[in-house]
Every structure is written in structure tokens, then in C-alpha cells.
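Lesson 9: reading folded outputs for more than one chain in a single document. The general rule is that every protein is listed as its sequence immediately followed by its C-alpha cells, and records are never interleaved. Here is the first one.
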Amino acid sequence: MNHDLEGRLREALDERAQVFEASPQAWPRVQARARRARLRRWTALTLLPALATACVVALVVVMPGGGGPDISASTTKADDPIAELSAENPPVGEILSISRPDFVGVGSTVRIWFSGSTRDHERLCTELRDTPTGGRTAFCQPMDPWKEKQFAWYAGGTDTAMPAPQERLAYGAARPEVAAVTATTDDGQSFPGTLHREGGRPWPIWTVLFPGDAPVTAIVFTDEAGQVLQRLPRTIPWDCDGDRTPVGTGIRLPGGVSAHLHAENCLVFWHRGKQAGTDFGGVAARGEPLSVRMAKQKKPAVIWGGPGQSATGGLWYGYTGKETHKVELRLNDGRQTSAQTVADPWGQGVRFFGGKIPKGGDPNLDGAVYLGYDAAGGELWREVVPGREHPSRPPTPR
């Protein structure tokens, strides 16, 4: 009995250590990079990016550093993580709770509210379950409702989850002039959504649910006369993110990460049963090999990594050119780690790698250098991540 109890305790501690390791400053950095990736998928969107359900990692090499949205956030396994964030960002009007069909057999909700005393400083805040085992994330995003010609903004959802769930959710904010919201497909299917105007909120919140395999290409917003006010095109190729079956068994990498290739050369990383990173490539790169996609970005490697990732805290992984046989990560505090690359079984012209980041290290915030070596140990390339000012530290004198 003691042996069983000890085993369960070890399993629980391991689960918490690998899934919920996050610092208060780390998650905003992950959110900022993930949102920049999703902004490219919704071309009419400008300021309200999504939570990274499609990519809950930091693309630290191909995505340039620098500031992102001013986002406040907290990640926790507590019963009510909304309390701290809502105290710092008091709700204006009621908090909206909606169903979030993320995890099969696991109930989950999203809670959304507005905050801010004036329309110049309004924020849209979200709290949601972030892992199947119970971790939750809360974050706030600034919004600019007076953006020219904008009638609606996309805030998040499960619309880009892989593999496709049975039902997808998308949600965001809209101007009061919007009378209806509908998810549409190119073949004429439509899925009416809901505008939530009640509760004293300054702006309506829109939600749309549609089947996971429905090839939705746009979210359309109309006025009372049925005239289109805003159309948010969905630009991810559906052969990619709608494909439920990867090619082969995938590549297992250190740290429990595995890489899988789906239709149209869409790359998906998984960790502990949760999607941990994606490379969709976008419409322009549809069907292109990963090597060609990487070359167009003029980068020697595509790397995901950093703490604060609910699924992959403390891990780094990615792909590089087929000539690179080892990738090294040097943190600016002097610590370093390296990973041998793994051959690509899909003929993509790349090699994969992965490993653990030294404890407490954060290449995205503290700065780091990534180096690639050939089979003989010669240096092929290096990429410098400059790092950024720690939010908790006083500004550096200029």
C-alpha cells in the first residue's frame, strides 16, 4: 500500500513539475509570440490576438524579439486563478462564461470580461483551462475599439486546435453596430454565432461554435440590414489543420516531445498528450518542404522553447538544415546545453532536435546564443537572442 501511495505521489509531483512550471513573467512572453503567429492567420485582425491554443510556445528564432502587447497574465493550478487577475483588472460589467470544447471528456469553460476605466485604456481579459489535467491561465489584452474600419476583433478559441476537436469555438469583441456573426465556408455552409450584449459590458462579446471538420474560411459580421460590416478571413489551409492523422509514428525527442507531420507538410509537436507547437506555413507555403519554408525565412533553424509554457515548460526543440548534426544553446548566464539532431524520415530536407533548458533559464528573456555544428564539430551557424528587460527589475540607466 505504501508503495502504491508513493508511486501516486511521485506521479502527481511529476505531473505538476512538467505541466505547471511557470513564472509570472514568462507567460506574457509566450502569449506575445503566439499571438503574433495567429495574427497572420486572421488577416483582418489587428490588435486582439488569440491565446496560443494552436501554438503555446515561443518561436524564439524565427520570430524576432522585441515588445509585444502589454499583457498581464497569471498561470496556476489553483481553483480560481481569475481572482488575482480580476483584482488587478476589475470587470466592467458581468463576466461571461462559455463552454470551451478543448479536451474530450473534460469539462472546460472560458471566462471573458472587459476592464478599464476609459475607452482609451480598455482591456479584454480571458481565463481558461490550459491543460487537460487542470491548469488554468488568465490574461488581459489591450484593445483599440476606434481602429479605423474595424467592427470586430478575434480574441481566441479552439478553432486552430490539432487534431481537430469534434466542435470548435471562436470568440472575440464587436462594436454595438454588429447585429449578427456567422462562421462560413466556401461551399455555402454557415454556422450562426451569438452576440452577448447583456450584463452591462461596454462592447458585445461574440462567440461561434462549428463542427471540428467544417472547412470554415471566414467569420462574417453583419448589421441589422444584413450588410457585411467585417469579414475575418481564416487563412490556414484546411488540408493542414483539419487533418487528424499524422504521417507515420512521428519522431521522439528528448524531454518527451514528439514531432509529427500532417497533410500539406504541416508540422505539429506534442508533449504529454497536448499540442505543444505547430508550423502551418500559411497559404503561401502550402505543401512546401520544411527546408524551403525555413530558407524563405532566411534562418538556419526554427526553434521553440522557454519556460512558462503550460505544456512544455523548460524544454526547447525544433528543426534545422540537414547538414547540422548538433545544436547548442548557450544562456547568457554562462550555462549551456546541446542536442544531437535526428534524421528527417519524411524527406523534408531537415533534422530535428530537442532537450531540456537548464533549470531557471529563459533564453527569450535573459538572452542566449544558438549554434549549429556539422558532423565533424565545425560551427555552421549561430543565432543570437538579445533578451529583454525583466519586468521585475528596475530599468537600466541610459
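And here is the second record, again sequence then C-alpha cells.
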Amino acid sequence: MNKKEVKLLIEFINLKNKAIKTGKDSNELMLLFEKLNRNLNISK
């Protein structure tokens, strides 16, 4: 993993934790996760 990937992963985990705390729906999380995966695939 490069620094960009680690940063994105940390960002996603923070968003996930925030979503759990605030009770946001998982659809938003799935969209964020797909975006994260696309970014990781581009950077490879």
C-alpha cells in the first residue's frame, strides 16, 4: 500500500465510524466504499 491508499483507507474508516455514530444509512457508505475502491484501482 502506498501513502495515498493508506490515507484513503483511514478516511473511509473514520467516515464509517462517524456514520455508525450518527446512524446514517449504509447506502451512503457503500457509495463511499465504491469511490474508495475506484481510487485504489486507479493508483495501482
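What the second record shows: The two ends are 9 Å apart (CA to CA).
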